[in-house]
Design goal:
It is globular, with a radius of gyration of 17 Å. About 40% of the residues are buried. Helix 3 packs across helix 4, helix 3 runs parallel beside helix 5 and helix 4 packs across helix 5. The protein is built from 7 helices and 10 strands. Strand 7, helix 6 and strand 8 form a beta-alpha-beta unit. It has a single domain, classed as P-loop containing nucleotide triphosphate hydrolases (Rossmann fold), CATH 3.40.50.300. By secondary structure, it is an alpha/beta fold. The chain has a 6-stranded mixed beta sheet with strand order 6-7-8-3-9-10, with helices on both faces. A 4-stranded antiparallel beta sheet has the order 2-1-4-5, covered by helices on one side. Bound molecules: adenosine-5'-triphosphate and magnesium ion (MG). The site of magnesium ion has 4 residues, from helix 1. The site of magnesium ion (MG) has 4 residues, from helix 1.
Length: about 230
């Protein structure tokens, strides 16, 4: 059962790269079952915010809580266990391992989450099927198009049925129809929380809440549930 604790909460989070301030006193919450789209111009800190939510980065001040647990105060091992078991991440570049096929890339995260070999193979194939890529299961990343690699990354993030999904421009290389399919998969996958960075208005409008990063003045607003949801 997904936990009912607040899945993601930023409390007065500030973060800088050197003297370049990226987030200043940013606060928002993703409630259980909720989706939040993060939008804003290039360089406004969207990927940084996602990395803070995943525990890959720690805030300079303030707190990032994932399922009630502060990422800053938990150990590296604890954060990495949480990422493995609970969080599905789609990074901005697909980040597939070059020496593994599409199917093996997905199998790897399932095996890492302690799934047996044959079950991992079956679940990986089902994940590829959901993103329309069964036919290229045996292709290596350099044998995939940019959009296909991105869809493998989405399949990989969703394969282990994570409670929290963090996705950084998961449809950035896709045509309108495939974007619609992948966005539907992502929104349908929400068990506990979805945080999706996107430049695509149609993808953002499906979210319960839109967080706009605008030159250090983040604004959060609830979206009207439109007919496309
Ligand atoms: N490791 C790093 N070291 C120093 N500066 C960085 C680092 N990573 C990102 N930055 C800077 O931080 C700012 C925010 O980067 P970030 O990747 O979060 O932007 P973004 O909103 O995701 O942009 P895009 O829409 O282009 O992906 C950028 O100006 C970038 O140059
Ligand atoms: Mg980015």
């Amino acid at each position: 059962m997904p936990s009912r604790a607040t899945p993601i909460e930023f409390k007065g989070v500030s973060f800088s790269y050197g003297d370049r301030r990226i987030l200043v006193n940013t606060s928002f919450r993703v409630e259980p079952g909720e989706s939040v789209a993060v939008v804003g111009p290039s360089g406004s800190g969207k990927s940084t915010l996602l990395h803070l939510a995943s525990g890959l980065l720690s805030p300079d001040s303030g707190e990032v809580l994932v399922d009630g647990l502060s990422t800053g105060s938990s150990s590296v091992g604890c954060r990495s266990r949480m990422r493995r078991s609970q969080i599905g991440i789609v990074l901005q570049d697909a980040s597939l391992l070059e020496e593994l096929t599409a199917r093996e890339n997905i199998e790897l995260v399932l095996r890492d989450a302690r799934m047996g070999r044959s079950e991992a193979r079956r679940v990986a194939m089902a994940a590829l099927d959901r993103v329309g890529l069964k036919d290229v299961a045996g292709n290596y990343p350099h044998e995939l198009s940019g959009g296909e690699a991105q869809r493998v990354a989405v399949g990989r993030a969703l394969a282990k049925s994570p409670t929290i999904v963090l996705a950084d421009e998961p449809t950035g290389s896709l045509d309108a129809s495939t974007t619609n399919t992948v966005a539907s998969l992502l929104y349908a996958s929400v068990r506990s929380a979805l945080l999706v960075v996107t430049h695509d208005d149609a993808v953002a409008r499906r979210a319960d809440q839109i967080l706009t990063l605008d030159s250090q003045h983040p604004q959060s607003q609830k979206t009207d549930p439109g007919p496309n949801r």
